[in-house]
Amino acid sequence: MNVSLLDFQKKEKKTVILAVTIGNLLEWYEIYLYVYWAPILSKIFFGNHLSVENLMNVYLIFGLGFLARPLGGIFFGRLGDRIGRKQSLILSILMMTIPRAIA
């Protein structure tokens, strides 16, 4: 019985390591994509000419979004503990989709 439990724990560890690795790769891929597209985004959103100020604005927006993730996790994590995970998830999705639908 101990052998099968150890095998299960080894398989579980491998699965966790694989999942964390894939998640980390996706996170870095997102960052590299944003850095690659930043000059183009600065032209689209902040004017036709490429300037350092426009590029810094694009990076500032990315940085604010990057900082908002843990703050949202703290807020919606506590909210999920109080009203339930499903309701917290629904609320967060609505808070993302309603402004997009209005724009």
Architecture overview:
The chain is mainly α. The protein is 92% helix and 0% strand. The protein has helices spanning 2-46, 52-83, 85-102. The chain starts with a helix and ends with a helix.
Secondary-structure-based class equals: mainly alpha
Strand content: under 5%
- How widely separated are the two ends? 60 Å
Record field, number of beta strands: 0
Mean pLDDT: 87
Tertiary shape: flat
Task: Report the total helices.
Answer: 3
Percent range of helical residues: over 70%
The value of Rg in angstroms is 20 Å
Report the order of strands and helices: HHH
Question: Describe the biggest sheet?
Answer: none
Poorly predicted runs of 5 or more residues: none
Which helices and strands appear, and what pairs or packs with what?
Elements: H1 2-46, H2 52-83, H3 85-102
Helix pairs in contact: 1-2, 2-3
Q: What does this entry show, briefly?
A:
The chain has three helices and no strands.
Structural descriptors:
mainly alpha; about 90% helix
